[in-house]
Amino acid sequence: MIEFCSLGSGSRGNALLVRSHGACVLLDCGFGPRELERRMALRGMHPRDLDGVLVTHEHSDHAGGVAALARRHGLTVFASAGTARAARFDGVRLEVLVGERREHIGDLEVLPVTVPHDAREPCQFVLGHRARSLGVLTDLGSVTPLVRERFGACDALLLECNHDREMLASGPYPWPLKQRVGGDWGHLSNTQAAELLAASRHAALQHVVAAHLSEQNNAPARARAALEAVLGAGDPRLRVADQESGFDWLRID
Question: Which fold has domain 2-244?
Answer without folding.
Answer: Metallo-beta-lactamase; Chain A (3.60.15)
